[in-house]
């Protein structure tokens, strides 16, 4: 039996995400898409992510209908009580490289749990593009590797251009630098990308900064993989995709992944069950609250899974929301506010009682699809941005880190799907921008928002660009064989 399995040629992909919410959820969606196409998948989670998925989601029953699917786990090398939040993300980079990398190699070696004859051998790896060490390990074993970068194509391209930005003197950032200055170094974005809009990891005065070094070197290594997968679609990011293709020709733009999965599931069954990839318990009482609100009357507020707020910003945002007189649904994740959470002004508590609803974690896709939601105050995480686009909900962007500074610029300046409030957190401005989004400037956003929703939907429908690109990826995975990997 073991011999038959180890000689089997059936495609078997190992998917290995960077262990944080946004990366795990879109790679799980890709895993399900591959399962639907008859590919065997092993999904390698960090122990802690896996425990939380088991606790808060139906992930086991969801994948139980795919006999070729299974989970494996690996340590991320950090102590259990490490917060793993955005302000400590460099710790995750570090420990993955130090602790997880050698474990990953052992798992793939003959006799390791990914290569012990109980399942068909791994025929290709889809690894998070921020973990390029997987290329070295897979190369050693003769297995092809596709990298999946979960940021926007535009951000990936900005990262790719870092050496040019250093050469032109734009980086590192100097003390007296004018942050609104347009940059020439990121080809195709010269007309709108300011110093302020570079990904947060580029906002450094010292080029030896660890986060900066990681994103620069990981991005430069991408060409060594067999292909690059991005969660985006041609009509949204054509310019960045065109630039990237000049350097990395084998590019698969297969997003929005959540819409791509929904569309393919619907082709298989009439009403696919709703599923969740949440690492926190979803509070569905907010859906009942939304049911009681008028159409497009509520602004949904969420800053994703990694953002840390300080008390000052929390209070300014809160005043802005309450003083806008709009209904609001606000996600405040546990342990996401630094400092003292007591002594909240009575005006804010009263305003929240009257017009607000707060939860610790929401079923975001369902919230955005609810007819009561008319706007999204977001940190511009890439998944959130795509989810808002598909739901045709205009955005106010208040980016925190990573690709969010680029995404918010695109939303506000290029796609005209909302307003960019980058680097500002002032109660009067927050109040005004909410009023603009929900009332005063609503009409000017409606057309671009509806148009982009339609383009997103078209891209994942049969014959659409992301649909076709996903089929090509599946074909390439099915025909990949061990030992074809040539450098
Ligand atoms: N999310 C959710 N409920 C919440 C907040 C966020 O389900 O209350 C999901 C959201 O739908 C998205 C993901 O968490 O899929 C966050 O990913 P994103 O890339 O937007 O931001 P990150 O958390 O990586 O900063």
TrEMBL record:
Keyword Transcription: no
Catalytic reaction(s) noted: 7-deoxyloganetate + UDP-alpha-D-glucose = 7-deoxyloganate + UDP + H(+)
PROSITE patterns: UDPGT
Principal EC category: transferase
Keywords assigned by UniProt, alphabetized: Glycosyltransferase, Transferase
KW Nucleotide-binding (keyword) present: no
SUPFAM superfamilies the UniProt entry points to: UDP-Glycosyltransferase/glycogen phosphorylase
Known EC number: 2.4.1.-
Any Pfam family hit: UDPGT
GO molecular function: 7-deoxyloganetic acid glucosyltransferase activity; quercetin 3-O-glucosyltransferase activity; quercetin 7-O-glucosyltransferase activity
CDD domains linked to this entry: GT1_Gtf-like (cd03784)
Highest taxon above the source species: Eukaryota
Similarity field: Belongs to the UDP-glycosyltransferase family.
Protein name: Glycosyltransferase
Organism: Artemisia annua
